[in-house]
Structure formats: C-alpha cells, structure tokens
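so the lab meeting is tmrw and i was supposed to have these ready like two days ago... anyway. pasting both below. for each one the top line is the aa sequence and the line under it is the structure tokens. i havent really looked at them closely yet so no promises
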Amino acid sequence: MNDDKPDLATQVAAAWANALDTPVADVPLDTNFFDAGGDSLLLIVVLEELQELTDRTLEAADLFQHNTVRAQAALLADEGGERKLTLLGARNRGSLLDRRRSAGQPDATADR
C-alpha cells in the first residue's frame, strides 16, 4: 500500500476546495456542502472530480444524500458502493416511471 497517497477524506476535501475556490484547510469535514457555500452547479463540479478520482459512476443524488466531506469519503470507500448506487439509481428511475404512468404522462423512453 502506498502511504504517500492522501486518504479519501483529504481527496474529497480537495475536490470541495477546488469547487468552492477556498484553501483545503478551510473545508469543514462535517458541514453540509450547501452550508459551506456550495450550490447545485458546484456540486456537479465536485461530482465530476470525484468520478475522475475514483473511476466510479456517481449521481448527483448520491452527493445530496452524502452531503459532507466525511459522508462522501465513506461513500467512496464502500467497495460495493458502485453496484449499490447503480441499483438505487435504477430503482429510483423505475419508481419515477411508474408514477408518470399512473398519472397518465407519457413514458419519455417509449418508442414513438
């Protein structure tokens, strides 16, 4: 194991610092991203940086649910996390489609 590689919390904090344009030392570990000065557009910047960092597919909803540096680092540390996130995303999309259908709205994915 390479001890020179920063831990995940440090890497997540660096992504936040980049998005928030602040020194990494000023990034709080247990404060909600939005309370730390972020917004939804900056969250996408963090999302893209974390995906590049970890080579994992994440959704914005994952970062809304895990909204602190520590929580995001724990999410990324979860070895089975990508599979769980993918299944959660698929389940959420399926639920949304079911609600649209029951409301009589057309399925945007259906052939026309």
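ok protien two:
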Amino acid sequence: MAAEDPSVPVLEKLGVVLTDRGSKYAVSGAQVASREDVDAVLAALKTERAYAKATHNTWAAMLPSGGLKADDGESGAGMVILRMMEREGLKDHIIIVTRWYGGKKLGGDRFRRVQDAVRTYLERQTG
C-alpha cells in the first residue's frame, strides 16, 4: 500500500449526509493554507469516481489571504458555504458540498440542503 503524500492535506469525507427529491448531498473538508492546498484537496476528492462524476462539487475555503469559493454550476452555493464558515470563524479550511442531481429541481431548497450539509460538517469539527 502506498504511503499518503504528506504535501496533500488530509481530506475528511463524511459521505452522503442527506437526500431531497432524489438528489444526494455529501460533504467533505480539510485543513488548507494555500490555493495549492485547495487544488490538491479537490484533485484528491475527484480521484474517487463517484465524486468526479457528481453534478456539482461546490466549495469554499478560508485562507490566510482571504476567502475563495466556486459554485461548480450550483449558482450561489459557494457563497452560502463561505458565509457559514465566516460566521463559525473557521479558518485555514475548505468545505466541499457534493450534489448528485436526482431529476427534480429543488429551487431555493437547494440552498437549505447546502446549509444542512455544511452544518453537519461544522458540528463534526466542533463536537
């Protein structure tokens, strides 16, 4: 078995944490200190086929240089994650919410599902 690359931050995947009208949501995260760390974590996540083929891998990161986010087609979701991280005071971290589309549009509920997934991750970090 190959040793883990110490230069890649350790990714914590909680797996599927909720479903809504056929869509499945998973949440993952890691400690990061730079944009290079963010890219390494995203690449590590996508080595798993299910995550690589997901409809959306929306993420936000709080770095020493400030916040970064990406919606990956789920317009506005990155900002939802970033704001929750800011309110929680979580620094040097990335949170990724993955969605596998279930065939039905969720409208504004998609933001609530992103919030639910992030909340699950944050609770795991603090409790």
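from a quick look at the 2nd one: The mean pLDDT is 92. The longest strand covers residues 12-20. will dig more after coffe
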